[in-house]
Amino acid sequence: QVQLVESGGDLVQPGGSRRLSCAASGFTFKNYNMAWIRQAPGKRLEWVSTINSNGGSTNYVKSAKGRFAISRDNTKNTLYLQMNSLSPDDTAVYYCATGSFDKWGQGTQVTVSS
To answer: What is the DSSP pairing of strand 108-112 with strand 11-12?
Structure first.
């Protein structure tokens, strides 16, 4: 069955970095655009970034530009989100999903706090 399993969330100090991973299985990962979406406490889902199927094109929400980097390894069926210069505003549950948002993972918590 289709599975997207996020990992890498943790408590991070402001200004710190963290890399999230999303392991995909049950579908042909290399054929799909992929995305990261987050939900901060008490707030709506927010799209963060998208990468196309071969990794050649990426897009970011304005607040993530220059700080976050989405990437993928199609040989490992894995999606990544490198997050740098983290601030408390980045505290959220981070989900990976297909680019059409029809497949989602369970999420991983990132908390940015001193």
So the answer is: parallel
Nearest alpha-carbon partner for 1 in 21, 26, 22, 18: 26
| Per-residue model confidence as pLDDT tens digits over 37-51 | 999 999 999 999 999
pLDDT digit string, tens, across residues 44-80: 999 999 999 999 999 999 999 999 999 999 999 999 9
Q: What angle do CA 71, 65, 49 make, to 5 degrees?
A: 45
- What's the per-residue H, E or C state across 46-106? EEEEEECCCCCCEEECHHHCCCEEEEEECCCCEEEEEECCCCHHHCEEEEEEECCCCCECC
- The contacts of residue 50 (CB under 8 Å, 6+ apart) are 33, 34, 35, 36, 58, 59, 70, 99
- How crowded is the C-beta side of 93, counted as CA atoms within 13 Å? 14
